Amino acid sequence: MSRGAPDIRLVPFDEQHLPGMRELVRDPDVLRFTRVPDPPPDDFPDTWLERYREGRRDGTCEAFAIVDPDDTFLGVAVAPEIDAAARTLELGYVIHPVARGRGVATESLRLLTEWAFAELEPRRIQLIISPENHASRRVAERNGYRYEGTLRSFYVMQDTWRDAEIWSRLPTDL
């Protein structure tokens, strides 16, 4: 844990974290800044968990719950896309509203990045961040990620094409 960082850890996401996930996917900022559908289908957390379980088995993605020492759910830290052959991956993090503004996102990304470099030995890690999400951009900067550019009309959400910023980190950036 970094000096002054919150006391958190990443644990494999499982059924016990679903109640927290159900709250998280209904948060207005989550719906604004992520690719979670608005409104999320009632079964979204369950299908999301199953997708990550399958990905965990085949090595294409991974999901962790962010928890405090009392195992209180604080959010999720994910690798939604792992390309083992290309040695590249995407990372992401979503923090529960009660945990925001306390350094949880910064520490979560630090732990997730350490995990990725240690376990997957990638040539490149990238983050996809909404241009309007200034807090997430600061988290990326604090963790040594570099802004590479904005992809225009990168994905569609609610019939609207949205831009996305790409931030990256390479092993040589360490």
- In one word, what is the shape? globular
Class of secondary structure makeup: alpha+beta
Strand content: 25-35%
Structure annotation, total helices: 5
The secondary-structure element order is EHHHEEEHEHEE
Largest sheet: number of strands, sense, barrel closure:
7 strands, mixed
From the 3D structure, determine the CATH topology of one domain: Aminopeptidase
CATH architecture of one domain: 3-Layer(aba) Sandwich
CATH superfamily of one domain, please? Gcn5-related N-acetyltransferase (GNAT)
What is the number of strand segments? 7
Overall helicity: 25-40%
Low-pLDDT stretches are: none
Description of the structure:
The protein has 174 residues and is α+β, with helices and mostly antiparallel strands. The chain has a domain at 9-124: Aminopeptidase (3-Layer(aba) Sandwich), CATH 3.40.630. The chain is built from 5 helices and 7 strands, in the order E-H-H-H-E-E-E-H-E-H-E-E. It has a 7-stranded mixed β-sheet, with helices on both faces. A hairpin with a 5-residue loop joins strand 2 and strand 3 (73-83).
Please tag this protein with its features.
5 helices; Aminopeptidase; 174 residues; single chain; seven-stranded mixed β-sheet; alpha+beta
Give a brief rundown of this model:
The chain has 174 residues and is of the alpha+beta class. The chain contains five helices and seven strands, in the order βαααβββαβαββ. It is globular.
